[in-house]
Design a protein that fits this description.
heterodimer, A: 200 residues, mainly alpha, 8 helices, B: alpha/beta, Ubiquitin-like (UB roll), Elongation Factor Tu (Ef-tu), domain 3, Rossmann fold
């Protein structure tokens, strides 16, 4: 496959990962920080941006590790352990760098990094990319799309929850309860994108 | 086969080791902020290794800042004023600080990292906060669900606290709880007895700490607590005092009464204590004794719904109703409240109706 075709496929996969196969709304991965940090748009924005960054970078790293370490040695069944170790180490490392060199970036993005170190959405993206046999460029597109998809979902949720602040919600449903219900409705709405693209 | 397993284990170990080394090395160089100086209240200076949070740096130096969540940024108790060197306000702190606090440089000490020299303000009384080890000396039943616990201090063997303050009791890991938790209880004992503390605790069904105290703690057991904390205390004025309490809210009031007796404080004081049934009343004899010993103190117990077979010739009705009936005008008073949030709210409302302004009403609300 030539480069331009690959880039086109990466684009298609990316758009599909944002809308039709949103990692949060159709796979329900990464729910914990999604519920915990979606109270305000500002925080949701920071966390979403951190997820995009981490997903793209870890997809690259994990693809390389899988292709050049695990496959040649016939150790693909070790991908779970290796991927999670790489993700954790990478996030730690990035947090240290940001913390040291850019207080402003640390303020907007860095503080959220520890929250997503062991996030299942991040690991999920790496695993899907391997299972679906993506090439490097397509994998990067997939990581980017999954990240953006997660970002869109959490920012939308934070917007809805800010609106909900003044509404009377039955006590038993306040907080996580109503958030899960809204997540379900959002997931239904996203089903509407099915058929727009058949990517991946 | 064996070779395959060996290779697999080796590869994974090697990769993990390589990553760990990378992290360790980069931490060595990146997170090395050198020695930082922290200036406390413009007088005391401590030199610390940079890179950790302010909260942990302070607790390493035996300065304990109240923190219920253990530094995760979810309780908002560890507020401190940082005058210089804190860096930008983090989004994790924002929900806990109002505009006035932000303007004056208040921060959550569990979120502020020590990266450079800092100048901070700590309320004076926090310097007094220590961790204590003590032995349970006595457990007394007060009612069917309230007990008094007396602890003998072991290390350090003396405590100085202001009557009305509370301590945080550590519940160790036991059958019903897999982690250590702290719970706050007001000190009820005589402050002159510096070798002991007493707590009055009411059993909360399913509560981690109260279940431990009621069902597991035995005389002679060793427990730990830290403190003292809290702003609840008797003021220095001569205004007449009204105390209102219910249940285990007896604790800080009893402590303040001991203090008044010890120091010959002659203020006019009246104490309304509420209970639901007669069997929920306790320490009436002790309160009568205070009534005899203090020059101008009156104890008025109130029972809201006595059982028909219970004999009760004192005041009847909710304690707040009794206050309203009995006190009539509270404009000159100072009020000290302790009890459930419901009681505190209701009492505050009644007192305001009786002419008291809110700045003269003091309480620690324990949810």
């Amino acid at each position: 496959m030539n480069i331009s075709a690959e880039i086109w496929q990466a684009f298609v996969v990316c758009v599909a990962a944002i809308f039709t196969q949103n990692i949060l709304l159709s796979y329900f991965l990464g729910l914990c920080p999604f519920i915990g940090v979606s109270r305000e748009i500002k925080a949701a924005f920071g966390l979403g941006a951190a997820v995009i960054f981490v997903m793209v970078s870890t997809c690259m790293l994990n693809w390389l590790a899988y292709r050049y370490v695990l496959l040649p040695l016939n150790l693909h069944f070790f991908r779970f352990i290796l991927f999670i170790v790489i993700i954790a180490a990478f996030v730690q490392f990035v947090e240290m760098v940001i913390d040291r060199f850019s207080p402003r970036l640390y303020q907007t993005l860095g503080v959220f990094l520890p929250l997503i170190t062991v996030n299942c959405a991040i690991l999920g993206a790496s695993l899907f990319m391997v299972i679906r046999n993506y090439t490097f460029i397509v994998a990067v597109g997939y990581g980017l799309g999954s990240g953006i998809g997660w970002f869109v979902a959490i920012v939308a949720m934070a917007g809805i929850r800010q609106k909900l602040k003044n509404d009377r919600i039955p006590p038993g449903l306040q907080g996580a309860g109503i958030t899960l219900i809204i997540t379900g409705l959002m997931a239904l709405a996203f089903i509407g994108f099915t058929g727009v693209l058949q990517g991946g | 086969m064996a070779q395959e397993i060996l290779v697999a284990v080796l590869i994974v170990s090697l990769t993990s080791a390589a990553l760990a080394t990378l992290l360790a090395v980069s931490e060595r160089f990146l997170s090395d902020y050198g020695q930082c100086r922290v200036l406390l209240n413009d007088e005391k200076e401590i030199t610390v290794q940079g890179g950790k949070t302010l909260l942990s740096v302070l607790s390493d130096n035996k300065i304990f800042i109240p923190s219920a969540c253990g530094g995760r940024g979810t309780c908002g108790l560890c507020k401190l004023k940082v005058q210089e060197g804190a860096g930008l306000l983090l989004p994790t702190e924002e929900p806990y600080l109002n505009q006035q606090e932000r303007d004056s440089g208040v921060r959550l000490s569990c979120q502020v990292k020590v990266r450079n020299d800092l100048k901070i303000q700590i309320p004076e009384e926090l310097f007094n906060i220590r961790e204590f080890t003590c032995k349970c000396a006595e457990i007394t039943d007060l009612t069917h669900d309230i007990k008094q616990f007396r602890f003998e201090l072991v290390e350090p063997d003396k405590i100085d606290y202001i009557p009305g303050q509370y301590i945080q009791l550590l519940t160790p890991v036991y059958e019903k709880s897999s982690e250590e938790v702290y719970r706050a209880y007001s000190v009820s004992g005589d402050p002159a007895d510096k070798n002991h503390i007493e707590l009055i605790i009411r059993y909360v069904p399913g509560g981690i700490c109260t279940t431990y105290c009621f069902k597991y703690l035995k005389v002679g057991d060793e427990v730990r607590f830290n403190g003292p904390y809290g702003q609840f205390r008797l003021t220095d004025t001569d205004s007449p005092v009204v105390f209102i309490a219910g249940g285990s809210g007896m604790a800080p009031i009893k402590c303040i009464l001991h203090h008044m007796k010890n120091n010959g404080i002659k203020r006019t004081a009246v104490y309304y204590f509420g209970a639901k049934k007669v069997k929920d009343m306790f320490m009436q004899d002790l309160m009568k004794k205070f009534q005899d010993e203090l020059p101008d103190f009156k104890f008025i117990p109130a029972v809201s719904s006595p059982d028909p077979d219970e004999k009760w010739d004192g005041q009847k009705g909710l304690v707040t109703e009794v206050v309203k009936r009995d006190l009539k005008n509270a404009a000159q008073h100072e009020a000290y409240l302790c009890g459930s949030p419901g009681l505190v709210d209701a009492a505050e409302k009644v007192l305001v109706e009786l002419g008291l302004t809110e700045d003269k009403i003091f309480y620690d609300k324990f949810a």
